[in-house]
Amino acid sequence: MPVPVLLHFVIQSQITSLEPLKQHKSNRIQARESRPKASIISPILTDKVVISIYSHFSVTFHWIKGELIGRGSHGRVYLGFNATNGEIIAVKQVEVPTTADDRRKAALKDFVQRLREERKTLRDLYHPNIVQYLGYEENPETVNIFLEYVSGGTINGCLLEHGPFKEDVTKSFTTQILKGLSYLHSKDIIHRDLKSDNILIDPDGICKISDFGISKKLEKPRTHTFQGTYNWMAPEIFSDDIKQVGYDEKVDIWSVGCIVLEMWTGNKPWNDEHVLKIMNMLAKKRSPPIPTGLNLTILANEFKKECFQVDPAQRPPASLLVTHPYLTLPIGWTYPGM
Q1: Is residue 100 one of the residues assigned to a domain?
Q2: Same domain (yes/no): 67, 42
Q3: How far does the signal peptide extend, from start to end residue (predicted)?
Q4: Cα torsion at 313, 304, 205, 84 (round to 10°)?
Q5: Is 191 in the same domain as 80?
Q6: E-assigned strands of the chain?
Q7: Is the same domain home to 132 and 185?
Q8: Is 208 annotated as a binding residue?
Q9: How far apart are CA 186 and CA 148, in angstroms?
Q10: At residue 32, what are phi and psi to the nearest 5 degrees?
C-alpha cells in the first residue's frame, strides 16, 4: 500500500491560491492526500473551502459535509466528499462549547481535547491496519478530524448483523489487529480502548484500528491513568497500586483476547454483566468466562490463555503473538466477505 503524500494545510487567515489574486479564509488545518476515489455523496450542508500547500504551490481544496454515519455522547461522524479529487472521507466532528458553564461544558471540553490528542497520535502513523489520518480543522464552532472512510463497518456491527465469525475469518482479523498493534507499540503508543467497536473492516476484509482518543504515548515505561471500556479492560488497571506501579502496552493484548472471544461467540466479553460485577471480577484478576457449549481447539485455547495471562509480563507482545500457530490460515485462503 503506497504511503500517502503529505499535504500541509496553510495556517493563516488569508492566503493566495493558484487562482491569481484570489484570497480565501482558512482555519488551522493539516492534511494528507487521500487515497480511494468514490462516486457520489449527497451534500447536506454547504461545502467548505480549504487552502493547502502541495509541494511548493498552494491548492484550493473543497469538501462537502454529507450524511451522519455515527454518533457518540459528544461527537458525530459524517461522510465527507473531497470535491477536488472525488474521494469520500470520514469526518469526526465535535462542537466547541461556547455557552455559559453548564453540565455538558466540561464533558465537551474533554471530548475536544481527546480529538486534539487523537490528531497528535494519528498524524505520523502509516500502516495498512490503522485508519489513515487525512487532515484536521479547528474553528470557533467545531473541531474536525478527516480520516480514511472504511465502508464495511465495525467488527461489532458485523457480529450484530451476522453472528459469530467463521474461524478463518477470526484468524485473519486477529492477525491484522496484532500487526497494527505491533506497529503502534513499536512507536511506544498504547491504544487503551481496543474493542470491537474500534476495529473497522473494509469490503476486502482489511481490518483497521481506529479511535485513538484516549491512546497514550509512553514517555516513561508505564502509564497510570484509568482509561478504557470495562468489558475489554485488563485486570492490572484495577490494581490497588496502579498509581505506583502503572501498566504498559500489554493491556492491549488482553483486549485482543476479548475481541477474539467476541468473534468466537458473537457476544461482548462479560456479556451483560453489571459493570460493578465486571470491575469486581477484574480486581480479582479473573478473565471473561467462556460460554457453555463453545468448543475450542487446543490451539485456540492456548491462544486465549496467552492473551489472558494475569501477569502482564507473561503476556506475549503483539509482535510475537501474531506468529502463534492458532492464527495460521490455509494456503490460498481468501476473505469470503460477510
Answers
A1: yes
A2: yes
A3: none
A4: -30
A5: no
A6: 6-9, 14-16, 23-25, 28-32, 47-54, 57-71, 75-82, 87-95, 133-138, 142-148, 189-190, 199-201, 207-209, 216-217
A7: no
A8: no
A9: 22
A10: -115, 150
277-315 confidence digits (pLDDT tens): 888 877 778 888 888 888 999 999 999 999 999 999 999
Q: Is 70 exposed, middle or buried (0-12, 13-18, 19+ CB in 10 A)?
A: middle
pLDDT in tens, 137-184: 888 888 888 889 999 999 999 999 999 999 999 999 999 999 999 999
pTM of the predicted model as reported, rounded to 2 decimal places: 0.77
Does some domain include residue 319?
yes
Q: Are 307 and 317 in contact, with CB atoms under 8 Å apart?
A: no
Instruction: Please check whether residues 161 and 300 belong to one and the same domain.
Output: yes
Nearest alpha carbon to residue 263 among 172, 333, 330: 172
Q: Does residue 336 lie within any of the structural domains?
A: no
Note down the domain range covering 269: 155-327
> Is residue 183 within 8 Å of residue 189, measured between CB atoms?
no
What's 52's domain CATH number?
3.30.200.20
Alpha carbons 91 and 144: distance in angstroms, whole number: 6
Q: Looking at 99, 123, 148, which one is the last position of a domain?
A: 148
Which of these is catalytic: 110, 188, 193, 197? 193
183 and 274 in a single domain? The answer is yes
- Looking at the structure, tell me whether residues 179 and 228 fall in a common domain: yes
Q: Provide the residue type at 35 as one letter.
A: R
Domain ends where: 129, 148, 167? 148
- Does 272 qualify as catalytic in the annotation? no
- Check residue 55 and give left, alpha or beta (phi > 0: left; psi -120 to 50: alpha): left
Per-residue pLDDT tens over the stretch 75-131 = 789 999 988 889 999 998 888 776 655 556 666 777 777 778 778 878 889 999 999
Encoded amino acid at 63, one letter: W
Strand partners, 93: 76, 144
- DSSP for 82-128, written as a single string: ETTTTEEEEEEEEEPP-SSS-TTHHHHHHHHHHHHHHHHHHTT---T
